[in-house]
Amino acid sequence: xxxxxxxxxxxxxxxxxxxxxxxxxxxxxxxxxxxxxxxxxxxxxxxxxxxxxxxxxxxxxxxxxxxxxxxxxxxxxxxxxxxxxxxxxxxxxxxxxxxxxxxxxxxxxxxxxxxxxxxxxxxxxxxxxxxxxxxxxxxxxxxxxxxxxxxxxxxxxxxxxxxxxxxxxxxxxxxxxxxxxxxxxxxxxxxxxxxxxxxxxxxxxxxxxxxxxxxxxxxxxxxxxxxxxxxxxxxxxxxxxxxxxxxxxxxxxxxxxxxxxxxxxxxxxxxxxxxxxxxxxxxxxxxxxxxxxxxxxxxxxxxxxxxxxxxxxxxxxxxxxxxxxxxxxxxxxxxxxxxxxxxxxxxxxxxxxxxxxxxxxxxxxxxxxxxxxxxxxxxxxxxxxxxxxxxxxxxxxxxxxxxxxxxxxxxxxxxxxxxxxxxxxxxxxxxxxxxxxxxxxxxxxxxxxxxxxxxx
Length: 456
Ligand code: ADP
Ligand code: ADP
Ligand code: MG
Known about the structure:
The protein is α+β, with helices and mostly antiparallel strands. The protein has 3 domains: 5-104, Rossmann fold (3-Layer(aba) Sandwich); 133-202, 2-Layer Sandwich (Dna Ligase, domain 1); 208-453, 2-Layer Sandwich (D-amino Acid Aminotransferase, Chain A, domain 1), CATH 3.30.470.20. The protein is 35% helix and 27% strand. It has 16 helices and 22 strands. The strands form 6 sheets. It has an 8-stranded antiparallel β-sheet, with helices on both faces. A 5-stranded parallel β-sheet has the order 3-2-1-4-5. It has a 3-stranded antiparallel β-sheet with strand order 7-6-8, with helices on one face. Helix 2 links the parallel strand 2 and strand 3 (48-53). Helix 4 runs antiparallel to helix 5 (108-114) and helix 12 packs antiparallel against helix 13. The structure holds adenosine-5'-diphosphate (2 copies) and magnesium ion. One adenosine-5'-diphosphate is lined by residues 83-85, 164-165, 193, 236-237, 291, 295-296, 384, 386.
């Protein structure tokens, strides 16, 4: 059954993005809003707005009962969860399914399996996809952690099974550190994700983060090539590209095929991303996790393939079978996305909420700015600091960086600090221009002098 009305259980730029896709498909939109968001761009664009609770996310966008009540009362026949919040919460998804409402994403059982990192790892092993050497399943207790770490070899990385957004991760250099960090990570995971399950992996130095976008309809799965997201701060992506420029063609094919094999194994339905680490020296890749939802950086894939991923999500959720096969999916040129956060790079990226006193978005044939901003908008202090994503496309990577520089020059956001100056400095950096970086590179690069020079 094609979707005719859609409840948007998210906020910010992704809510705006979802409304645009729904409108293009003639779908009526009902936007959820906390009391802090009733004047948001998404609320202005949606056909209807439902207030779901107070500003704090725990009492609004993360409140399963409040959201479910609002969805049912709205009469919507489908719900899009965006990313973050309840998008990978199996209990929420099961409740939506039980109410006879379409969830725009995979079913609750698939999310329970692939959204849990330790379980997804086991599936990957079973599908013959290489994973980072690590613990089998979750770590039991400290003794077990000691034994597993000794077997894997230090340094190791401990991760929250239910983790996301770079939280619940610790690099452990030796046994003394392990004894301190395991209880810490457990406590953080319990507080952030309501689940203190941990597992362990070998820490791969100088790796690149490369991920594969897939679309499935429950019987067929295709890939839409890869993205590279190696420029990270606190294990959160800040700059993403498609394709991964440094990847040899044979490795690209093997990587994308492995993602399709794993997604096929679980009869994956809707959009998903399989994340990997890639070691350029040995040309080995290792699966690390699957995100069973739309990702922040999906626009770079849209730019090189010409496929609208959010519209695809809505059509698949509405029951359509994939309307193209693998051989129909091509890629052209190079796309870069930079995340514009309301943060002050000169003050250790301190959040910078407040009133936007002047605003102008960059424009152009191959320039896109996905944002929640408008002049006079007040950025709330309660949520993620992402306020916009600047995406450029050009025939090759070099030209894409030039296009990015031009677009950053045209972006005007006054009244709050943003990470735009960081991106101006990165776009001018010789190593970035060469593509010579890895997941820990940016943390080493950031210095007060560089940020000063960038004009923050
Ligand atoms: P992506 O690869 O799409 O960037 P991330 O894992 O960085 O994925 O998460 C996307 C967004 O969702 C980020 O803003 C992050 O802070 C948020 N997020 C991720 N996981 C969770 C979670 N379990 N609970 C709340 N927010 C989350
Ligand atoms: P999250 O759910 O928070 O996105 P991920 O498992 O995707 O967690 O890891 C986030 C980032 O942490 C990766 O992009 C990478 O930079 C780093 N990372 C993850 N696993 C490893 C590892 N085994 N070795 C080195 N770095 C890793
Ligand atoms: Mg990840």
